[in-house]
Each structure stands twice: as structure tokens, then as C-alpha cells.
Amino acid sequence: MGKGLLVCLLAVLTACSSGKLIRPITPDVAARGMVVVRELPDPLPSETARVPDSQYVMVFTESTVVALLDMANPVPLLKEAIEGAYNNHEAAQYKARYAPIDPYTIAHDRLQGSPLITGRGDAVHMMPLVYMVEGDDGRFRPTLVFRVESRQWLGRYMYHLPTSYTKAEMRQTAPEMIATLRHELAGGADVLRGLMEQDARGELRGDGLSYAYGSYYLVGGRVGGLVPASVIQFMDCELIEEGPDHLVLRSQGDLKAPGPNGALAYGVHYFRRDQLHTFKRR
Questions:
Q1: Which residues have CB under 8 Å from 273's CB, separation 6+?
Q2: pLDDT tens across 55-89, in order?
Q3: Are 21 and 257 in contact (CB under 8 A)?
Q4: Alpha helices in the chain, H assignment, sequence order
Q5: pTM to 2 decimals?
Q6: For strand 246-251 and strand 267-272, is the pairing parallel, antiparallel, or unpaired?
Q7: d(CA 171, CA 148)
Q8: Under 8 Å between Cβ of 249 and 218
Q9: Computed from CA positions of residues 95, 98, 103, 108, in that sequence, does the dihedral angle turn out positive or negative?
Q10: Under DSSP, is residue 38 helix (H, G, I), strand (E, B) or coil?
């Protein structure tokens, strides 16, 4: 079996495996409360790149150069160096453009008055950030993430924004795009605040069934250069809420997976129905 195919199959198995079990907010975390901090997870998933001095993280598809290098079976460190340099160069192009749209400021403002924001000295850190996932269709799909982390518990709440953007739109950042992104981040922060507060009250409960789902917001490009994103599914998620136009899922996932291969699966997700290419009962 060729190396490229083996990597591809391993990536699919990783995406479909149970991964880390996600649990509701623990009583200890709910009692201590949270404080919004301008931090990013450490480490970030591999094969991602932070937009410098921001709360934005880019998840690029595998470049043609990197894919060809992988097929040629180069020295692994050489491949990683080339891929890292490419991703960091691309991410740096967006630095100045996104300074006015700060996820930290938006989250801090929208969480004012929440019973979860206690001001205690031992409050748990909540990190707001945005993953921009590139797809094979050339569009970037943004996801607002509230990551809550203590020594005993890790929670992620994710709102997948309705509007996606081309690379040209991302680089031009026209005033209407900035306005749309800011508006949708504020709306997403309100949704995530509600989900976290419900979770702390023990109200985010699944229906007891198991579902499989897939979305280009989690895996946008071919895995291992071969497997289309449209066939990547994540198993063993719970359906928490179902509306006419949206679903709320609690999903297991592998936090150590590479960014383009499903690192975003773990957590509580708010999806519009049209953001899922697959959703079915197992």
C-alpha cells in the first residue's frame, strides 16, 4: 500500500473514531465561573496557522506543492517546514485586515451580565477564537469558538457562521464584509452564551440516540490528498436540539488531530441544516 493511501485511510479512521468523550460543564466549573481571556489554545492543532496578534486561526487545505512532496516521500521534517512556512505566510496576509473585528472584544461585551462570569480569582479561562476553514471550493468558512479549559474539564462551544468567503474577499475585506462578519460573530456569541448557560444548568441533554454527521466547516479539503471532504463523517454525536433551520450537536472528537483532518469535531456545535453535508441516525 502506498504511503499516500495509507495516510489517507488513517485520517478517515481518525475522523470516524470516538475520540475524546465530551461531558457537560462540571459542577466545579459552574461554581467557579469563567473569565474571558485573550489567549489561544496551546498547542493549536497541527497544520493550522494563527493570524499574527489576533484570535483568528487559519485551517488551510493541503497545497499542491505539499501534496506533491508527500507523494514523493520526502524527509518528514522538510515537508513540515515547507508546509508550516506556506501556512504562516498565508495567515500573515490577513493580519491588518482583521484587527477591527476582534472575537475577544465581541465575546467580552456579549457576556456582560452572564451568571457564568463571576469575577472569582479561581475562575476558569474562556478563550474566544475563530477558525477559518478553507474548502476545496475555494471558500473560507468561519466558526466562532468559546473554549473553556480547567485542569479537570475541557469544553468547546462552536457557532458556525452563515456566510462563507472567497480568498479574494478575505484579502480585500470590503466594508460590507467586515460588517457582516462582525454582525454574525456578535449573533454567534449570543447563541454560545445561551448554550453555555443551559449546559451549566444541566439543560443540554441529548435524545439518547447516536448520530453521524459531516460538515465542510470541520473538514473542508481532501484528507491525505485523496479522500473527498464530502465523505468524512464523525460518529457518536448526540442531538441536543432540533429546529426548523438548525441543529445543536454534542460531538466527540480527537483534539490531537491535524486541523484539516477533524480537530474541530470535539464540542457542542450550532449548525444550520445547510451547513451539514451528512446527518443521519446510526
A1: 245, 246, 247, 279
A2: 999 998 875 445 545 555 555 665 566 666 766 77
A3: no
A4: 3-16, 27-32, 64-71, 76-92, 103-110, 167-172, 175-200
A5: 0.88
A6: antiparallel
A7: 30
A8: no
A9: positive
A10: coil
